Amino acid sequence: MSHKASGAIYRDEKGTYGEPGSWFVRYKYPDPVTGRRREKWRSNIRTRREAQEIVNRISGEVYTDSVPTDARVGTVADGWQVYRTEFEAAVASGTKKESTLRSWDRAWRNHVGPRWGHRPMAEIMPADIYAFFSDLATTSLGTSSLRHIWHVASSCFESAVTNGLLGASPFARVKRKALITPEPKGRGREKAWERHELQAFLAALEAEGHRNEWLWRFILLTGLRNGEAMGLRDSDVVDATLTVSRQYTYLSRTGNYFTTPKTDSSARTFGLSEAALRCVREQQRRRAEYRLALPGRWPDDTGLLWVKPDGELAMANDPYQTLRRFTARHDIRFVGIHGLRHTFATMGLDAGVETKIVSDTLGHSQSSTTSDIYMHTNTDMTRRAGEQIASALGF
Asked: Which of 151, 178, 205 is the last residue of a domain?
């Protein structure tokens, strides 16, 4: 719905917005991008003449805002370079992660750039956005990948608007949820082992053993992300309490490196079960055996837990690849390293652990995130809750 611009001047007799007897201005106008009504207010104006001058000035500002583009408009690739330069500066300052930038690079290189890179930004219309994401919907890309592509494409235009290359972004006229269907609740359960699969995995570990055995068990018992577990040192475990303050990751350009956890809430402290502590002790014992086997050749002691027999830390993706081979040998469904984290969460919730506790242990910022990922099909939990309520009611 469109609106016409109009300004009105009022006398503030009671001093509601300023001094009693002063004037105030209310100016209504259509948003130049969405067409929805917007307002600007000015109050505590001494005279009606000054109020009228303010109305005229606001009218001029609104007219300037409504100009769709200026002479410096470029291609979508130009908008991407502006956004990427800003993001690189944020990475250098430590406010953004380099791994995130690499994700955006992939989305641009594989999808947005080939489709739109050569086109002028002023030429892209909402219809182009609908066509782009309709085509993406026919691929095997998941919701997360589609959101990455949306973020990169829309950021090209938003940065161009902010820097004066473009007057308005076509993405402001399109709702993301209309094009990207949210993942169904409970999706984490599909990526977790069922109880019989978990039992088969543990039995295979018991029978064969593996140099990553205690790492895999530890993730199953704590719900840590692979990088968080790989980055642990002896000093991170004190009196049955674990502190997660960094993660180990890999980028093809820079190799393996340590960085801060994924989000602010990912930096966390929680208590360890006796079974999880046993994993730490067993790995420390195994590490001591490795060291004794290499007298004089053991690298500088960093206190890292999950080292290889030569004392070095494995590649960040090594546990994923070795788990794939291990499960294939034992005919167990492969769920990936993150599937161990999903298994921890689903088994915990099924056992009646409070969602808030599971959420804090996983490092989720909100309990609703945990619920959305894991609790959609958990009918046993709702049945138990119903029994508890019935008992409380005296039935």
From this structure: 178
Residue 70 in tokens: 């200026």
User: Buried b vs exposed e over 215-250: b needs ≥16 C-beta within 10 Å?
Assistant: bbbbbbbbbbbbbbbbbbeeebbeeeebebbbbbbe
Q: Spell out the per-residue pLDDT of the chain, length 395, in tens.
A: 445 677 888 898 888 878 888 988 888 877 655 566 778 888 888 898 888 888 877 776 664 444 444 445 689 999 999 999 999 988 888 788 887 888 899 999 999 999 999 999 988 999 999 999 999 988 888 888 899 999 999 999 999 888 878 878 899 888 888 888 876 666 767 789 999 999 999 999 999 889 899 999 999 999 999 999 999 999 999 999 999 998 887 665 556 678 877 777 788 999 999 999 999 999 999 999 999 998 888 887 788 999 999 988 888 888 889 999 999 999 999 999 999 999 999 888 888 888 888 888 998 878 877 877 776 545 666 666 677 777 777 76
Residue with tokens 């719905």: 1
Q: Considering Cα of 161, then 162, then 163, then 167, what sign does the dihedral take?
A: positive
d(CA 38, CA 6): 11
* 244 and 268 Cβ atoms separated by less than 8 Å: yes
25 within domain boundaries: yes
Q: Which range of residues forms the domain containing residue 95?
A: 76-178
395 part of a folded domain: no
Quote the CA–CA distance of 309 and 311 in Å, as a whole number.
Answer: 5
Question: What pLDDT sits at residue 13?
Answer: 87
Closest C-alpha to 24, from 45, 50, 1, 55: 45
Burial 334-354 (b: 16+ CB within 10 A, else e): ebebebbbbbbbbbbbbeeee
64-97: burial string, b at 16+ Cβ within 10 Å, e else? eeeeebeeebebbbbbbebbbeebeeeeeeeebb
Q: Are residues 130 and 202 in the same domain?
A: no
**What's the structural domain count of the chain?**
3
Could you tell me if 344 and 219 are in contact, meaning their C-beta atoms sit under 8 angstroms apart? Answer: yes
- Angle 68-71-72 from CA coordinates, rounded to 5°: 100
Helices (H) and strands (E) in the chain, counts: 16, 8
**pTM attached to this predicted model:** 0.65
